[in-house]
Amino acid sequence: MVKRILTINFGGLGDEILFLPALLSLKKEFPDSKITLALEPRSKSIKQLTDVIDEVITVDIKKQGIGKYIEIANFITKAFFGNYDMVVSSGASPFISVIEALTFISKRYGYDTGKLSRKLLTAAVPLNKNQYAGMMYHDLVKPVTDYLTELPKIAVKPLEKIPNSILIHPGVSLMSKKKGCIKSINSKEWAELIDRLSAYGKHVILAGGPDDEECIKEIEQFSQTKNYENCYGKTKNLVELAQLISSAEKFVCSDSAPLHIAVALGVKTYPFFGSTDDKKLVPKNENIHPLKAHDDCPIKPCLWEYRQQSCEKLSCLKYDFSEVARIICEG
User: Could you give the CA distance from residue 38 to residue 172 in angstroms, rounded to a whole number?
Assistant: First the structure.
């Protein structure tokens, strides 16, 4: 009988939201189980959005030098003494299967990363990156359940829709900024879009997280009409942000965690995609309308596929904002 399940998913908040379908199917299969999620400290707020996670364990794998290995050793010790019946871990590194084996948890599931993983794991699952990431993660639980949860779901009660509203969230993760990954339009272009949406008579609402202060201030500076509602700083946590997203008739954002919150809430969403692959990061459904520039870049999408940092040209993020505003307002 499976009573305690350890799951491991290192990445940003968006990754944790995309991991939720796998956790939800586990909970359906083992309704009396308690699920623990091991994750990076930057993503621990995922617990605010769901009741399927009973406990989180933070592992700071971004530490430099020996600190990283101390973190991993401490985590393995916690897992060893945690009385878990099953461990499910994402990650394409062969080292992940070694970590699972060192926990001595009897049932171990992860991606097939070679002969070692096939020897150490109860089931080594083929890694198919050419699909929606939520389904890529969900493949990990196929050996233990026939339940299929196709989309993330979050435990946030939606608010009443604000008539004629379009919510703008320009933020991207701090980690992507540090890595030099430019995944969205700049502040001046966000301001132009806000002005054009306002000219359509839309109730434009601006929001952002703690890492977006500079971007929000620049948007305020560049906007010509000032005809929008600035809600920056009014959402104090992820739940309040999710509620604000739920209240919007339409949502415009970057390739970032708020996008995945909107997907989970079923809000009509227009995310900007340039160097990253929308086919892997959003599901195909009537609520999601990726905004992609009509450029001639021969290797787009390139980020993670061909490059670890964005190129200087950024032709994949050159938009006609009159056309973008029309698509959003008339779509």
Answer: 23
Rounded-to-integer distance, Cα 104 and Cα 328, Å: 52
Tell whether 189 and 287 lie within a shared domain. yes
E-strand stretches of 84-209: 86-89, 107-111, 123-125, 165-169, 203-206
**pLDDT, tens only, 78-112:** 999 999 999 999 999 999 999 999 999 999 999 99
In this model, does residue 195 exceed pLDDT 90? yes
CA-closest candidate to residue 276, choices 236, 330, 316, 245: 316
Whether 188 and 323 map to the same domain: the answer is yes
Tell whether 101 and 236 lie within a shared domain. Answer: no
Q: What pTM did the predictor assign?
A: 0.93
Task: State which of 107, 126, 141 marks the end of a domain.
Answer: 141
Check whether residue 101 and residue 64 sit in a common domain: yes
Residues 121 and 192 in one domain: no
How would you list the strands of the sheet with 55-58, edge to edge? Answer: 55-58, 34-39, 4-8, 86-89, 107-111, 123-125
Q: Name residue 146's amino acid.
A: D
DSSP-assigned letter for residue 307 = B
Token pair recorded at residue 153: 């779901």
Of 55, 321, 279, the residue nearest 194 (C-alpha): 321
Can you give the residue range of the structural domain that contains 23? 4-141
Q: Which residues contact 171 (CB under 8 A, 6 or more apart)?
A: 208, 209, 211, 212, 215, 253, 254, 256, 258
Q: Is residue 98 a contact partner of residue 116, using CB atoms and an 8 Å limit?
A: yes
Per DSSP, the three-state class of 46 is helix
Close Cβ partners of 17 (under 8 Å, ≥ 6 residues apart) = 46, 49, 152, 154, 257, 260, 261, 263, 264
